[in-house]
Amino acid sequence: MSDWLEHTVQVEVEAPIDLVWSLWSDLEQMPRWMKWIDSVKIPPDNPDISLWKLKTGSLEFTWKSRILKVIPNQIIQWESIDGLPNQGAIRFYDRHNSSIVKMTISYAIPGIIGKIMDNLFLGRVVESTIQADLERFKEYALNVKAN
């Protein structure tokens, strides 16, 4: 039996929602700002599916995700359908001169890792990492906006 952990983090980006949306919705670009994401591949024959690889230290996980819901400039919701169990949503809020990007992610802790690490400690590490990822996304978006 796995334990599920959930985290919600957000960042405000001083860029228009159209730009923020276009950058984030290009899933294959995620490794540019997500520290633990090694690669994201979208099969050309099925754009609702994505193949993910996460690497941190000696740990490596893969999974296949399916997009459940997309409302342009508002939400991308997903669930894994194979591999590391996870689900979540990225929500976008238009603040006219800026945009809020809010990520909620839930994931199952594989049994072996749950036995090795305290879930509270692991949760803090994951939450601080995804918050840093959103800060890197903000910098990335601001660089794109400037150029």
TrEMBL record:
This is SRPBCC family protein. InterPro entries: COQ10_START, ORF3, START-like_dom_sf. Residues 13-128 form the Coenzyme Q-binding protein COQ10 START domain.
